[in-house]
Amino acid sequence: xxxxxxxxxxxxxxxxxxxxxxxxxxxxxxxxxxxxxxxxxxxxxxxxxxxxxxxxxxxxxxxxxxxxxxxxxxxxxxxxxxxxxxxxxxxxxxxxxxxxxxxxxxxxxxxxxxxxxxxxxxxxxxxxxxxxxxxxxxxxxxxxxxxxxxxxxxxxxxxxxxxxxxxxxxxxxxxxxxxxxxxxxxxxxxxxxxxxxxxxxxxxxxxxxxxxxxxxxxxxxxxxxxxxxxxxxxxxxxxxxxxxxxxxxxxxxxxxxxxxxxxxxxxxxxxxxxxxxxxxxxxxxxxxxxxx
Length: 292
Hints:
The chain has a single domain, classed as Immunoglobulin-like (Sandwich), CATH 2.60.40.790. The chain has six helices and twelve strands. The two termini are 25 Å apart.
């Protein structure tokens, strides 16, 4: 039998994991009328929330992300003063990266803390919360335990009927056990250059209203996901947001101590192998019971 207690007590900094700082879920307030909220002393983009009359049209209501995702702070302003990058860009890519298309326009950004990953997808100008759809679904073939909280493996973000980003997440994320289909997301002005509107949304005869919408600031859908780690008390550092996408230099992650990373990686691999063995054994036991 494998002794898992050593992983529960592990406190070393890991290449892909580190001691996790506890955090609380964001408190969401419902408004009867559309309300604007400003973060960071007024230098943050405007955030749109659904009024009660619009909520019925958008089951996945926008929720404010955790403090580690998408909120500009004083540190980013100081860093921006020392570089040629806007503070907003530094916030969207903290411990992550920006992804651009072949024309150099931004398509999505991602950032991470010890406990969360925030993926910000660029949306067409004029996008409203009621036109946004965000889904995080599970992979039925992925190994799981019966007592384990539901996990999400696949992300799909759409707006105005067009898919903006879809792909498998680099690592599984923890879903709300009471409502696995619930996803925390918020719609804001991007405050940076936009990606071209999806071709499916462009028509040959553009009205005056559509032209006005195209000139408005680009929008951004920030999806906040809670990391899942098979090792109790540890958090997982991601190399990328979506499988097949760009990856980052793990040594550049802020606040991460790379000392002893190789040894920690070995412990991590052993934990994952032990987890897979437990799942396999449980499946065999269920099969024997079913046959008998």
